[in-house]
Design goal:
mainly beta; seven-stranded mixed beta sheet; four-stranded antiparallel beta sheet
Amino acid sequence: QVQLVESGGGLVQPGGSLRLSCAASGLTFYMYTMSWYRQAPGKERELVAVIISPGGSTNYADSVKGRFTISRDNAATSLYLQMNSLKPEDTAVYYCNAKLRGVAPREYWGQGTQVTVSS
């Protein structure tokens, strides 16, 4: 049974930082492209950052470039998102996503963790 469990969300003031974690189990983690998505109230879910394995190449939404950093630890089967210089518009539920392409594609989602940026 595949599980993606996010943690690290919370309330932070504008300009502050948070580090989200996603603990994965039940899948061959290193084979999966891992991503963070977010969904703000009344808006569609959007891709925030993605990291590919192997190689570790990354890509970011324009709105978070230079402020957020995605990383992964394949040995620990974990995904991270370091979020700096947070803005109120970063307020959303953040979701961990695992995707495997190929002849037997698979996709899994975590339950989400709330990030609120407010003074």
